């Protein structure tokens, strides 16, 4: 018999074998609930096993509440590319390889039974949020306020997700270059030690976390979900907030990793931000250059953040009307307002974790006096400081800067 004909016979036999094996595995597995599948997929007219094997698994439909089809395909790109039914892959290979069958952590949202193919990642990432801004805009203050909530954990800035301004490769670059395939616990630990500007170990035992993982880690999304959830749980809380300000400059990446995450844009008058940065080791000594950079960065955030999951909070409004603004923020995050959020005694002192340039900032004498007394959680002396800083001279405002200031309600006269 010609080799070509033998090849066709073998290929056909292999397809029949794979199909029969898939049907058998689905039939004997407790991860496939026939009654549940038919109830939640009323459009399915043929046998449940056949439908999921041929169509449902590739349409994002779940075989039962115990297995998340979309998440499995998103977390393991090689499975997506292989063309194998996701649950069949897990039963044949994935379980032995230590792969997960659904997102780790807490399930936060109920399933949409009317549209099961749409049930993607909203089970977990609606309880992850990001505080973004230009820096020197009150992001740390807001983090202190939110961390005081009984359900919300906000550690110090992690700065480990992606490279910004040539500050060295981070997790995103590691996974993009496939270095994650050779990375082990020690490598991730070293990455955090070298990139995180704070001593994270005094807040959270990340070394334990990485030594408990199975390597190699194939999915950045899976890693971050597990890490963020574990940080929150280590503090006895269920909601995680990340406060690295410059994450706002790559919101498309954040939205790809956390499609339902919420964003709080902490905004401050660009002239005050410019003066504040001139007193730090970052940005420029020239306040006019700082102002132009401020305009570009806040515009990027407002352009890229999803409108329905974005809350812009002006620093000035927060410090002058704290309860009103904090209640608004709590409503946005779907948590009740708690009185201790406004009490400085409940505010974490992030400076205790700082190192290097993070603590090398020239603070005003009035701020130092307020910090020493700390009778209030909010320092109002920095509101519109540019109006009283007579030694600082701003040139005529560029049109784009003027328009941006006015768009957010700031006086430009």
End-to-end distance, in Å?
90 Å
**What's the pLDDT, averaged over the residues?**
85
Major pleated sheet: 5 strands, parallel
Strand content: 5-15%
Helix and strand sequence? HHHHHHEHEHHHHEHEHHEHHHH
Global outline: elongated
Output the number of helix runs.
18
| Unreliable segments of 5+ consecutive residues | 105-126
Describe what this molecule looks like in 3D.
This protein has 18 helices and 5 strands. About 5% of the residues have low confidence. Strands 2-3-1-4-5 form a 5-stranded parallel beta sheet. With 413 residues, it is mainly alpha-helical. The longest helix has 26 residues.
Give descriptors for this structure.
43% helix; 413 residues; mainly alpha; 6% strand
């Amino acid at each position: 018999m010609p080799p070509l004909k033998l090849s066709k016979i073998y290929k056909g036999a292999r397809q029949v074998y794979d199909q029969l094996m898939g049907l058998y595995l689905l039939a004997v597995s407790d991860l496939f609930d026939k009654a549940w599948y038919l109830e939640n997929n009323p459009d399915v007219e043929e046998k449940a096993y056949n439908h999921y094997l041929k169509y449902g698994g590739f349409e994002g439909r779940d075989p039962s509440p115990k297995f998340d089809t979309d998440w499995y395909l998103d977390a393991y790109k090689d499975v997506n590319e292989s063309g194998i039914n996701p649950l069949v892959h897990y039963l044949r290979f994935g379980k032995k390889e230590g792969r997960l069958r659904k997102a780790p952590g807490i399930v936060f949202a109920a399933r949409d039974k009317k549209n099961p193919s749409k049930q993607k990642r909203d089970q977990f990432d609606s309880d992850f949020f990001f505080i973004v801004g230009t820096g020197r805009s009150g992001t740390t203050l807001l983090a202190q306020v939110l961390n005081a909530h009984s359900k919300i954990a906000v550690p110090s800035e992690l700065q480990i997700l992606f490279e910004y301004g040539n500050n060295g490769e981070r997790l995103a670059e590691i996974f993009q270059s496939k270095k994650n395939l050779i990375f082990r616990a020690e490598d991730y630990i070293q990455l955090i030690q070298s990139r995180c500007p704070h001593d994270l170990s005094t807040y959270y035992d990340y070394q334990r976390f990485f030594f408990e993982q199975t390597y190699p880690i194939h999915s950045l999304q899976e890693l971050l979900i597990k890490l963020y959830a574990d940080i929150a749980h280590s503090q006895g809380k269920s909601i995680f907030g990340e406060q690295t300000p410059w994450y706002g400059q790559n919101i498309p990446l954040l939205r790809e990793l956390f499609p339902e995450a919420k964003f709080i844009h902490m905004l401050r008058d660009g002239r005050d931000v410019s003066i504040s940065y001139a007193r730090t080791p970052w940005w420029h000594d020239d306040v006019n250059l700082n102002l132009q950079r401020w305009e570009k960065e806040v515009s990027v955030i407002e352009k890229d953040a999803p409108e329905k999951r974005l809350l812009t909070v002006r620093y000035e409004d927060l410090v002058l009307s704290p309860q009103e603004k904090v209640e608004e923020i709590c409503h946005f995050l779907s948590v009740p307002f708690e009185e201790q959020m406004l009490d400085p005694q409940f505010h974490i002192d992030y400076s205790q974790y700082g190192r290097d340039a993070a603590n090398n900032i020239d603070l005003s004498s009035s701020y130092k006096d307020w910090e020493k007394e700390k009778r209030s959680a909010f320092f109002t002396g920095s509101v519109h400081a540019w109006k009283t800083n007579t030694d600082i001279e701003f040139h005529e405002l560029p049109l784009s800067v003027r328009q941006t200031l006015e768009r957010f309600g700031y006086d430009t006269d």
